[in-house]
């Protein structure tokens, strides 16, 4: 059995408030012992037990590995011109999804896998150690299964998003596509996915309508999948009501929520209702208004943060930047933003084994090249956060890191 002590941690955020107090369970001048990839001990550096190896981080901060619970990382093509057009005033309406579908269908599996491998390394370099990945750029049976298989090689958090948009070949036969997604496509994709998601958006002619979204998600639940909803992204709509009605784990985007939606989500929160996953990089890259996180937090709604890295509405994979935007523009405190990208994101995936550092848990760590996690907000855009691969320290093992 190999043990390593990580010592000299200036500020260790555990999210274990019960043991260490405060909102974040912070311990200063801390050390942490890792045994076979699991945390075996947490305490002051001065009392760290003898170990086989020692890594001193010289006063830097350590936080739980970040959890990105909303990404669309399996795709081909490039929509940078669409971004440029938006910056010149064009509105986002979801049409670009179909452009990515065309490019993705035409791409080889090797190309898609290589791109995804690069994206995953990019995420780790920014501190993300758990990633949810959606399909949704295949929109036919063969390609949706292909994308889920590719994603499944990198994460257990795979999401079937056949209900992302109505593909061009079904434009005049929407009902037939909905029947396919909620029938044969779901049947073959369900074993490859943990979740199902839909883009329910009355303000986009390409996205699913409320009744279509309800049918797809109801059948997905019957097939044993957990459900998530893209809702209220482009304007007010039925997304929040649908998420609550179907017991979704998460309502994502929530850019345009009515007070009645916020009240509904608040009423559902004590019974394990949907976490609201806000995606500030999307508002940043589409020039939409930032949602008011405070309005939700004050009502007791659980709020998570994710990147929504995708080729259209946001191509940045930086969860630290999303966190900084949430504090600057959405009324979150730094504590709430850090929790949003760790324990609350874990909650949106219905997991309690990630997003916190406790004895017995996996050593799922991120290093902040600064004395405090506060520098994530204080110095936005600076690459301070990275996954800490304990096995990679001198004398250690693999370089690919561990996904949780
Ligand atoms: N809105 C729906 N889906 C993605 C965007 C997909 C795209 O434009 O390619 C999102 O989460 O924003
Ligand atoms: Zn999305």
Helical amount: 25-40%
Largest sheet: 7 strands, mixed
User: What's the CATH architecture name of the largest domain?
Assistant: Alpha-Beta Barrel
How many structural domains can be distinguished in the coordinates?
Answer: 2
Radius of gyration (CA) equals: 21 Å
Number of helices: 15
The CATH top-level class label of the largest domain: Alpha Beta
Find the CATH topology of the largest domain: TIM Barrel
- Strand percentage lies at 15-25%
List each distinct ligand once.
N-(iminomethyl)-L-glutamic acid, zinc ion
Q: Tell me the number of strands.
A: 16
Q: What's the average pLDDT?
A: 96
Low-confidence stretches: 394-399
Global shape: globular
The class by helix and strand makeup works out as alpha/beta
Enzyme class: hydrolase
Pathway: Amino-acid degradation; L-histidine degradation into L-glutamate; N-formimidoyl-L-glutamate from L-histidine: step 3/3
Subcellular location: Cytoplasm
Function: Catalyzes the hydrolytic cleavage of the carbon-nitrogen bond in imidazolone-5-propanoate to yield N-formimidoyl-L-glutamate. It is the third step in the universal histidine degradation pathway.
Q: What this model shows, in words?
A:
By secondary structure, this protein is α/β, with parallel strands linked by helices. It folds into 2 domains: 3-65 and 356-392, Urease, subunit C, domain 1 (Roll), CATH 2.30.40.10; 66-348, Metal-dependent hydrolases (TIM Barrel, Alpha-Beta Barrel), CATH 3.20.20. It is built from 15 helices and 16 strands. It has helices at 17-20, 80-87, 96-106, 109-125, 141-152, 174-189, 210-222, 239-245, 259-268, 280-286, 293-297, 319-329, 334-340, 343-348, 375-378; strands spanning 3-13, 26-35, 38-44, 53-56, 61-64, 66-68, 128-131, 133-134, 158-163, 195-200, 226-231, 250-253, 275-278, 303-305, 365-368, 385-388. Helix 4 packs across helix 5. The protein is globular. The two termini are 21 Å apart. The model is unreliable at 394-399 (pLDDT under 50). It binds N-(iminomethyl)-L-glutamic acid and zinc ion. It is an enzyme of class 3 (hydrolase). Keywords: Cytoplasm, Histidine metabolism, Hydrolase, Iron, Metal-binding, Zinc. Its cofactor is Zn(2+); Fe(3+). 4-imidazolone-5-propanoate binds at residues 79, 137, 164, 233, 313.
């Amino acid at each position: 059995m190999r043990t390593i002590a990580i010592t000299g941690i200036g500020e260790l955020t555990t999210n274990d408030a019960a043991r260490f107090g405060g909102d974040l369970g912070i311990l200063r001048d801390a050390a942490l012992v890792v045994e076979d990839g699991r945390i075996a001990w947490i305490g002051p550096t001065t009392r760290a037990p003898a170990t086989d190896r020692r890594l001193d981080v010289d006063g830097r901060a350590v936080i739980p590995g970040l959890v990105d619970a909303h990404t669309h990382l399996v795709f081909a093509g490039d929509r940078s011109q669409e971004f440029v057009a938006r910056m010149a005033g064009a509105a986002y309406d979801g049409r670009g999804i179909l452009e990515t579908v065309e490019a993705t269908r035409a791409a080889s599996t090797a190309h898609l896998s290589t791109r995804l491998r690069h994206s995953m390394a990019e995420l780790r370099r920014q501190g993300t150690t758990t990633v949810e990945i959606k399909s949704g750029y295949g929109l036919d049976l063969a390609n949706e299964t292909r994308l889920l298989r590719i994603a499944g090689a990198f994460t257990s958090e795979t999401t079937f998003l056949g209900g992302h948009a109505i593909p061009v070949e079904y434009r005049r036969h929407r009902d037939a596509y909905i029947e396919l997604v909620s029938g044969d496509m779901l049947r073959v994709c369900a074993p490859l996915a943990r979740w199902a998601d839909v883009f329910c958006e009355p303000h986009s002619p390409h996205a699913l309508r409320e009744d279509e979204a309800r049918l797809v998600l109801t059948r997905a639940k019957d097939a044993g999948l957990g459900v998530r909803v893209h809702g209220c992204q482009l304007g007010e709509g039925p997304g929040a009501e649908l998420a609550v009605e179907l017991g979704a784990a998460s309502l994502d985007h929530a850019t345009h929520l009515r007070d009645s939606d916020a009240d509904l989500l608040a009423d559902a929160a004590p019974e394990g209702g949907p976490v609201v996953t806000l995606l500030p990089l999307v508002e940043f890259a589409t020039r939409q208004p930032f949602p008011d996180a405070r309005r939700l937090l004050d009502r007791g709604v659980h709020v998570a943060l994710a990147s929504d890295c995708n080729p259209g509405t946001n191509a940045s994979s930086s969860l630290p930047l999303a966190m900084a935007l949430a504090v600057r523009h959405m009324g979150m405190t730094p504590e709430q933003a850090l929790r949003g990208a760790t324990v609350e994101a874990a909650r949106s995936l219905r997991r309690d084994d990630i997003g916190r550092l406790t004895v017995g848990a996996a050593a799922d760590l991120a290093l902040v090249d600064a004395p405090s996690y506060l520098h994530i907000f204080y110095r936005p855009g600076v690459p301070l956060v990275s996954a800490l691969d304990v096995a990679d320290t001198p004398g250690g093992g693999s370089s690919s890191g561990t996904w949780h």
